[in-house]
Structures are given as C-alpha cells and as structure tokens.
Specification:
The protein is an alpha+beta fold. It has three helices and four strands; from the N terminus they run αβαβαββ. It has helices at about 5-15, 35-55, 70-85, and strands at about 20-25, 55-65, 90-95, 115-120.
C-alpha cells in the first residue's frame, strides 16, 4: 500500500515503468464551487489517465470522487476520455455511490456526491 500525493507518485511511477494489478484513487474534493469544475475535471483526468497507464492487462482501477460539482455522468465521461488518451479499453465492472453512513436525500441533489467506479483495463 502506498499513501502519497497521487499526481507526483503516478507521474513518477509511469516514468519508472511500474505496473500494478490494482490501483485505488480516493482523492479529496477537487472542486469546492462551480467555478472550479474545469480544473477539477482536468485533475481527475490526469490521475486516472496515469493510473490506467500503470495497470497490467486485466488490472483493476477503483476510482472515487466526492466532488458534488462533478456529477456521475461527467465523471464517467472524464474516465472515457482518460481511457482514450491512455489507449486502453476499459470495462465498468461496478458503479457505487454513498454507503449507509452517507444516505442520499430524495430531492436534495447535493447529497448525491459520492461516486465510485470499479474498472478493468483490458
């Protein structure tokens, strides 16, 4: 297990030619307001692209976001773009949201902020 600044670690690992079976990305929120959505999406794309470059064939990426301002559809679109840039075919194995300790309130979209994708890189 490695706990590190994801941007630095992933960049260095790609440069070193490392490969992994499983990578878990669970960064803090990248956008505290609507004005930061574009920068947040770029940040998510960078770490996910690098993670996909580091996966062995058949490897799994578990990637999460707690950024309310980047919805599930936007997060999935970013993952698709990252996979294309990494030249990887990727399957969605599972999508998850909030667990019981973070219930979503009907009619209050702000409570639907946790996203998790389990992906397999082919």
């Amino acid at each position: 297990m490695v706990a590190a600044n994801a941007f630095d670690y992933l960049r260095d690992a790609v440069d070193e030619g490392k490969k992994f079976d499983t990578i878990v990305l669970d960064p803090p929120s990248f956008a505290k307001n609507k004005g930061a959505i574009e920068a947040a999406t770029r940040g998510y794309k960078e770490i996910n692209l690098r993670a996909l470059q580091l996966l062995k064939p058949g490897g799994h990426l578990i990637t999460c976001s707690c950024t309310y301002h980047v919805d599930e559809e936007g997060f999935e679109a970013m993952l698709d773009a990252a996979a294309a840039d990494a030249r990887r075919k990727v399957q969605i194995i599972e999508k998850r949201g909030a667990a019981r300790d973070h219930p979503v309130l009907l009619g209050l979209r702000e409570t639907r902020y946790l996203k998790c994708f389990v992906l397999r890189a082919l």
